[in-house]
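User: Please predict structures.

Assistant: First:
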Amino acid sequence: MDELPAVPAAGKPMPIGHHHAGKKVVAAKAARAAELARLSTAGDLDACLRLGEMYEDGVVVPQSLSAAASFYRKSATAEDEHKRASALFRLGRVCLSEGSEYDEKEALRCFKEAAEVGHTGAAAYLGYMYVEGVGVTKNGGKGLDLLRASAAKGNPSAHFYLSGMYANGQGVDKDADAADYHLRIATEKGFGPAVLLTSVQQATTSLQDESKLDRAIDGLRSTVRRQKGEANAKMKASASFNLALLLWKAKLAPRHGKNRGRETPDPTTAKLLFGEVTTLLRKAAEEGMAEAAFCLSSLYQKGVPPLIQASPASAAHYLAEAEKGGHAAAKLKRQLRSALDEIETVSANGGHGRSRVPSSLLDTLKKAYDGGMTSAAQVLAMANLEEIGSVLEEDGARFEALALADKVEHLLETAANGGSKKAAYLLGLLLSDADTSPLHALSLTRVDLTRALKMFTIAASDGDNLDALYHTAMLLLHVSEGGGGEKEGGREGGKEKGERQGASTPESFTEWEDKALIHKRVVELLIWAAHGSRSHMPLLSTPPHKYKFSGGHAGAAAALACVHLGTLGLEEVPEDDDKAFAYAERAAHLSDPRGMSMLGEMYMQGRGVEASLEEAKVFFYCAIDAAQEATRQALSHHLRPMPGKELWQGVLPSLADVVGRCQVRIASILTSEEKEGRAAFELLQLASSYPHSSVWKAEATLAMARARVSGFGVSKSLAEAVQLCDAAAKMGHAYAEVEKKKIFEKYKQSPE
């Protein structure tokens, strides 16, 4: 006989995992094992059979299938045919087990001999081998006869296998009633796999019935507790995994769909349930269940605050375990992550182009996407964005770039519909032509604010994406004021050029007659984004100096400053200089040029703070520098701008307003202080050089007219002053004509 593992001595029981028997019971079993070992050495074949079962189960002694097989072989020499059949059946089962010296031929021999003397379990296994063609030529008819004969004698495993055959139509006509009958018999007889399957089926069909749901959960918990020993480890892992999924779907998942209307557990109960879920998944993963490891990877990747925090290291560990277990989605997810890292590396190094992305990774992405994996769509979209950068370097390749842009849009929408909030956010940027869009100002995507708003809403649904919250609020405000789907900067031209116009205003918002409802939602979203989390949102009674921020979105803080200054058109929100100053200061702290500009305005006007022209001037200069830095950072994520879309003074179009206003304000301060007149006039010239009409361009032009009259920082020229007044009037400046009349009245004659 092979050398066998030592049997634990009495009083020194082996650890048995989560077995809940008392210490005395465990010690008694260990003592029994030691006694059986002594008897087997003396030639007791019954003791050999019992020891074989112990080594196969692995409850009291460490599992050893080779030791179990050795004891079963010795027990199979018994003269009593029933004892011999029992040993042969167990030996055949071990020969077909994973982790043993797999031997189909010996298993077939053992089952045949045992079945010949009436062992129903052996007959059931023999029937299975004939049906599946394991170790023998496939013979479905003979296998079915053996299974039916065994089931007729009450064997639960035969009933269970017949249930599967009838359910799937394997070798027999599909018959749901027959499948249910055989499964019920197997379950009533306590056959582990049948009990587990029945519990899972009951759980799946009882999500709407709380009482049935609780019974299903209790049934799965009972199944988990009953499965002991290494022999039942896989079944226990399966039961643990299914119980974890049921608890998550029925008790913890967001309350929508089938869960709508179900009572949400209180925080303490939720924490306990989530602890049970993660424990069950870990136990299943430890037993090699790849699906459980993949679920843990997903949980740690995103986190479920406050129940579990995101942990990239844990996510990577469990993803590797799932891939090691043969989980196809885990392998593909790792490949997708590698592809995205490679693409981001190419972009970070400034090397846009298909040649820089490995073709093998692109092939993997395309195969995954063609195979229906929506998560591959997002990464494939990023790869196509990089291709656009390469295409634009070629002459006459605009049509190809447009086709690629359409492809990117389609891929991102596919990923967004598949649940990717990141893809929804990126698509929102493309459709709104936001400054942070990688295709900004290239006129490659159709601007559609209706769809952009929908995508931003999806991306902001869990409250984690502050950028999405901010864009949702600003687009919501835009459409509430009658803004349509078209926006300057999108595709222009007709069908001849293969380019299209934008869409219309979202019907879901034009139907709202009360703008106050929309404005209230806009303010809520901005406050949420500005403070960084819902938990830090202040009460109406909270004084500004006690506001709390957790990171927060600079643009949202700047927008709230405008709201409280009364410049954003939300009449429902009363002006409050203290709140405006608090939010402007927060935006400036986050290096937002708009926030710095507003602080300059407030110091200049003495709103919410003591007036100080020197402080105002400092903030205006800082705002100009911040706008140029923000532009440099944004352009690092953009593809090459198209001709005619050049930057003005090194800033993006959306920040030109900040720079122009700051230049006009600085010039105004310098003029009032009667110093640095030349510098003031040069700033006004820069502000007035903006190629498009704007309020501050008109203001700069009129200020230059005044400088020409006074001769401060520039030579006097009444004729030039009048021309500048006329130019300002054409831009819509309300006081341009008044200023011109003052010039005539002062000099009692026309300058001409």
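Second:
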Amino acid sequence: MAAGGCGKFVDVGYERFLGRMKKQLWCVCLAFALLWVFGDAQNASCQTVDLTLSGVGNDEISKDIEVDTVNNVNKFVEKVGSLDFAVGQECFQLKLNASVVADVVVSTCKRSSFDTTLILLKEAPTETQEQLPDDIFLNRFDPTCEGSEGTMRSTVEYRTVENEEFLYVVVTGWEGARGAATVSFNVKKAEPLQISWGLDRIDQRNLPRDNMSSLSRGGDGVFVYVVDSGVNPTHSEFLATDSTTSGSRASEGKSFVAESDLSDCTGHGTHVAALIAGRTLGVAQGASIIAVKVLRCDNRGEKTALLAAIDWILEDIKEARKGAALVVMPVLSEFSEALNAKVNETLIQNDVPVVAAAGNFSEPDESSDSCLSSPGSLAGVISVSASNTLERRAVFSKYGSCTDIYAPGVGILSAFHTGDYATRVIDGTSQASSFVAGAVARLLSTNPRMNATNIRPAILSMSTKGVLDLDTGSSDPNRLLYVRDIPNFPVERPPEGWYHIYFGFQLRSPRNCSVDFNAELGSTLRRWLIDQEMPFSRARVFSCAPSFNPQPGTSELRQDEFMLDVQFEVGVVDKLSSVTFEKISDTMESEDLQEKMSVESDVVVEVVTALPWVVDARLLQFWAAPVLPGTTSTTSVGSIVGIVLASMTAFIALLLLLLLVFRWTKPAEREDTIGKSDKEQLLLEESGQSDSGFPPPMEMFHRSGGDPRPASENLNDGNTEFDVVSLEGGEGMFHNVGANVFGAADLGDSFASIPLSNRSEISENSDTGVIDGPLRTDSFGEEALLLGGGLFNRESFVDTEGIAEPAAITSDSAKKASSDNYPEPSIRMDSFEVFLDNEFV
């Protein structure tokens, strides 16, 4: 029994144990089976789409798949952020080549009977999906889809990263909508982004385009408020443009529509923002974008929302933002006094520049007058119309007397909201206004003190004039946007009423920088300016230094050569600055100056390191010579004091003039009673520049790249004669000091040239003469442009430190000059009188 009992006990215990184990095993197996079945069913319901590229060449794969969600009860994604989704969803698993970086596009543009929404995920979908910007991209509206027939069709775009093998796309309806659709899949190898023709056009004066943009990074420190449909801040175009910062330069400001979500659901705001500040597609690649949403997803908005947005912008500029700011308003309404008044009082009068689209029209009965749109019709706003590739007005663009400027606006490529690398080609004055807004941002970045009052005339005056073929009448301005880099180089403040023009070369030379070398280069520059008949008063080497950063394309140096970075400076009165600037720009493009330097100074110009730019007396810098308004007069106490002081100054100046006239009439007595210091002062007084002005005849002579030379270094002892040339429009004189000649002139807008064939005949007893008729500069060898003061070597007639080479004057050569011998000049004066030895003839 014992054995039997024991055996039965063992048998009964074993059976019970085995039974328990079987039940547990079945439970475990059933659980695994259910998990496997559920997971497999879930993954199986995501239909696989093979988009595997070969990786060879520029291969591309496109596929279309039909879906019908009417009877579909699947739900793969229930919630994304604050958005809820209903049943009726289709899921696709996209299989990719993990070794190829590719652009993937999924769209319902071809056909859809319902409002679709596309959700792109990096991981397999779950019913409750949190808002993860790195893992989810959602789009419910692509307005560029053609033939939508009243339905909202969608597109999502994505650029893969290395080792990315699968993506997931869920197709669902907006607000529970269901229906049939064609889902299109396209994948191709990622390629570098190409700039738009508009960006290519605005950095050059004339056609043909060079298929590139010369604009480097600009706009740093400037905030651009884009009043539109919102912005996709994660788009690659808004990434930081240098390695010192990270993240996006686009931020979500505030929404003024019922849809509180600031994301861009039409793409319009993203498109214009990237034209302003995109790192590849934009004009001001360093500017920051602030999205102000006033348009709903149907691309419409309320005027009350626009008015509220304008108030918020000013508040945000004052309280939350630092640095310069501007507002671009691609959105517009019919003419509205209330909107114009709000923009004027809130923005313009608070020195905030505003750029607006002139407006589009498409219907025959719709007005084409830009004055019937707001806020572009407001004086003070920069109103922009659109041009096309043929240099004509875009057929849809409004125009008229309220248009300020044109910019490219047809077929413009820029970023889009459907993906972080997505682009679209769109037409509109909105795109044209974005180019101008980018130019304003660049100008503000260089000159943060500029404001709405002087930004507008600067942009307009620097534009390219007369190149458009317009059919719009004389009231429409023929101005095309022009913008160029302003180098971050040192500059010097010119005197009031003058501009400095700077430009730079990288030179290969057998000599290193030195006073003599710089002086020789300066002389070559001045001779070239004279040869080209360019008005100027000062031209020199501003800086010269060995180059430690040879530019691409430079030749390899020999052991006996130096690579030098040289910056040149040309000073000119503001009224003539645009003439000189444009001529310098044109001739630099034709390499005429580079060739002259190679021939005369034994240097090779390897690279243009800085195209010409302009600096005014306020140290404001421009990419062309601007025409800016003077200070607006007011009736304030300060203005009255200013008027009184100006009147007193004018009265004192008149007394001094009378005194000078009196002294000129008694030269012998004066010469007998003055000493050397008085002679120096006389020269300064008679030039009218004893205290300030430009060019100072002795006080401000510069060694090339050095400090001002004291006047005492330029004078010698001994008797000095004064040869005075009186010109219509001003006076000039030569001060003979041994072998050197000082020249000083205040010529106003007039200048002339004198033949030099008999310059050796000049002496204290030379006869005098009078020249009537036109005079011109032909070549430096025979005649020279009389423009300003400077220190010159009289024997070789090559100035060593001066400002411009004045002609040596003789009675014989003067008498020979006549209108018969010289063609009609482009700039001339009608009469000219010669004084020698202080005796009037």
